[in-house]
Specification:
The structure holds two protein chains of two kinds. By secondary structure, chain A is an all-alpha fold. Chain A has two domains: 96 residues, Orthogonal Bundle (Rna Polymerase Sigma Factor, Chain: A), CATH 1.10.1740.10; 90 residues, Arc Repressor Mutant, subunit A (Orthogonal Bundle). Chain A has ten helices and no strands. In chain A, helix 5 runs parallel beside helix 10, helix 7 packs across helix 10 and helix 9 packs across helix 10. Chain A starts with a helix and ends with a helix. Chain B has one domain. Chain B is built from four helices and no strands. In chain B, helix 1 crosses helix 2, helix 1 runs parallel beside helix 3 and helix 2 crosses helix 3. Classes of the chains: A mainly alpha, B mainly alpha. At the A-B interface, helix 1, helix 2, helix 3, helix 6 and helix 7 of A face helix 1, helix 3 and helix 4 of B.
């Protein structure tokens, strides 16, 4: 082989080694950024899923998929939303199809109903912060899980995950107007559930 | 309860989400300054949102954190 040919080959090999190294660096950076968000992803997943075990599985499956398809992520965009998009798709595909029974029409309360129920129920002062403390943590977790999925997804993303309406719309692949109406109705369903649990305990 | 309070109740969620128009915002605030009944319920809703947020926030189990780290694709 000529000297020129050897030089070309060595240069080509160096270039490909450099490309590989850059690729590995990008991948490691992606994995680290994704793992740094795991706490926040879990907090949302915990209530999108029906149980801790389900949330655990869902988060693992999400990360396994994310690590495999990291090239599809556009650097500089919202990584937490990207991960949640994977997670909600997985959740809808598997867990949810199993319980696709005709959903009962959820009952909503007016927005003042919960306060009125709690304040009426107690004999103490009607100070707002004290009234809220009549709800236990278990009541709240149970009430949230009683909200039908379509509404719960939006509440969990916006009110617990602090996603914008826009992000929630993209994650769930629904129009922003639908996010807003489900949020509005979902919160009323949640408050009705909370009112029921509070009244139930009093008796 | 009279009509302005019903109207105020309907504006509560969008008010707290800060998505009312300026005019509606003004309208709600005007009613709230003079109506203790609605003011109390708005304050309750604000507390409720914070309280719910805290109540449902569970830290990720340590074991899961380790499982996720183990899913990383090794460099070769």
């Amino acid at each position: 082989m000529s000297l020129a040919g050897t030089v070309d080959r060595v240069e080509a090999e160096t270039e490909s080694a450099q490309r590989l190294a850059a690729d590995a660096r990008d991948r490691v950076r992606f994995e680290e950024e994704a793992l740094a968000l795991a706490d926040q992803v879990y907090r949302v997943a915990r209530h999108l899923a029906n149980s801790r075990e389900e949330a655990d599985d869902l988060v693992q499956e999400t990360y396994a998929r994310a690590f495999r398809s990291w090239r599809q992520y556009q650097p500089g965009t919202n990584l937490r939303a990207w991960l949640l998009r994977i997670l909600t798709n997985l959740n809808i595909d598997r867990g949810r199809s199993r319980q696709r029974q005709p959903q009962m029409q959820a009952l909503e309360a007016n927005d003042y109903y919960l306060y009125d129920t709690l304040a009426e129920d107690g004999d103490g002062p009607t100070d707002e912060e004290k009234v809220v403390e009549r709800l236990s943590q278990d009541d709240i977790v149970a009430a949230l899980s009683a909200v039908p999925h379509d509404f719960r997804d939006v509440i969990v993303l916006v009110d617990i995950g602090d996603f914008s309406y826009q992000d929630a719309a993209q994650i769930l692949d629904i129009p922003i107007g639908t996010v807003m109406s489900r949020l509005h109705r979902g919160r009323r369903i949640l408050k009705r559930e909370l009112a029921e649990s509070a009244v139930g305990e009093g008796t | 309860m009279n009509d302005p309070c019903t109207h105020c109740e309907e504006m509560m969620q969008p008010y707290l989400d800060r998505i009312l128009t300026e005019e509606e915002m003004h309208e709600a605030e005007e009613h709230l300054t003079e109506c203790e009944y609605c003011r109390r319920r708005y304050r309750f809703e604000e507390s409720l949102r914070i309280y719910v947020h805290q109540a449902v926030s569970e830290p990720m189990p340590q074991a899961l954190k380790e499982k996720l780290a183990a899913l990383r694709i090794p460099l070769n």
